[in-house]
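Training component of the fellowship. As part of building independent skills, the fellow (R.M.) carried out the full modelling exercise for a liganded target. The chosen ligand was adenosine-3'-5'-diphosphate. The inputs are recorded below so that the supervisory panel can assess the work.
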Amino acid sequence: MPRAPRGTLPPEGPTCLRHSSNLSLCNCHTQGMLPCFLGMYFMCPLTLDQNFGLLIFSWNLKGPPLSLQDSMALATALEAQLQLREVAGIPLQASTVDNWNQIQNFEAKPDDLLICTYPKSGTTWIQEIVDMIEHNGDVEKCQRAIIQHRHPFIEWARPPQPSGVEKANAMPSPRILRTHLPTQLLPPSFWENNCKFLYVARNAKDCMVSYYHFQRMNQMLPDPGTWEEYFETFISGKVGWGSWYDHVKGWWEIKDRYQILFLFYEDIKQDPKHEIQKVMQFMGKNLDETVLDKIVQETSFEKMKENPMVNRSTVPKSILDQSISPFMRKGTVGDWKNHFTVAQNERFNEIYRQKMEGSSIHFTEL
Ligand SMILES: Nc1ncnc2c1ncn2[C@@H]1O[C@H](COP(=O)(O)O)[C@@H](OP(=O)(O)O)[C@H]1O
Ligand SMILES: N[C@@H](Cc1ccc(Oc2ccc(OS(=O)(=O)O)c(I)c2)c(I)c1)C(=O)O
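Fellow's submitted model of the complex:
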């Protein structure tokens, strides 16, 4: 089905993509037969992933068709939702910013474990590892829900669906939660309750590449533009959850002051059993060798790519278009070498040196 490029409106106004006609003329909207969704590049999906549902306006028009002017105004409002907004200089989703008070007032509990990552650092991977450890390697228990719903995402908000905070509040303890927030934006109660934090860092170059392909396929995010353009966007930190450098430095700097297990994607890749053992000990669990081996196997990239509970295949194509780039894309270390030019690499290395100056963090890949 043809789709208007992100961030632009077709000249005739928004379109009902289900029926490929102008929204204001489309019968399904005017007769109130269907709960319909404003067109543009939103595809009237009826099976939206819960997390994204409220991005999209829904209505049942029983009255006269929308005028071109009204439909343009609605489309503009929707487009505004796609833009990131800032909290203390960090770009976040608009709906997260609207819900900021609730997020900041979240009441953590002392036995909470918070999975923390910069986007595209292996969040899904560590979530699956943690879930398998929590459930003693029981694959069926880990199939109870898609991974997005297993560990509440504390800054996620899509009213009127329950927010990440509301989901966490409804969850029995001990809770496992997740966030992409940098340290300075974390709800203070996590520090006050001396919670456990599990941070996974991934080298900046592979993160950039992974985020670029994710923005290409995620229809709810601004189009990343060309690779050259995205290179600048990423370096300047104008992406969701802000600058990679500040995020990683921030968590690294405080790791010895709190209960933080700081892991590297590259280490998990190189020796998964060893790193999974560290996670197990941090969680206060003791699993025997055979269970550990099973967890290594079940959380391999190859297995997870085929697992519908983690590979995002349940998310509609109108949101995550995996024909553009799969969510489980490559899962390797060093894919940046297939993207960076020699000049980009030299420039990146110099910027990296400046931004990371004074930090003792060391990545095996960089
Ligand atoms: N089991 C696994 N092993 C290695 N990488 C994995 C993995 N599961 C997911 N990933 C990778 O983690 C990245 C997604 O991170 P997140 O879950 O934080 O969004 C993707 O990287 P690539 O785009 O480089 O393939 C994805 O392929
Ligand atoms: N600005 C909007 C829309 C919006 C929608 C999606 C979105 O992207 C992401 C959501 C979740 C993510 O984390 S993860 O679940 O994949 O780990 C990521 I990375 C990107 C964003 I940013 C914004 C709104 O406010 O509604």
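The panel noted the following from the submitted structure. Residues 7 and 79 are 7 Å apart (CA to CA). DSSP finds 17 helices and ten strands in the chain.
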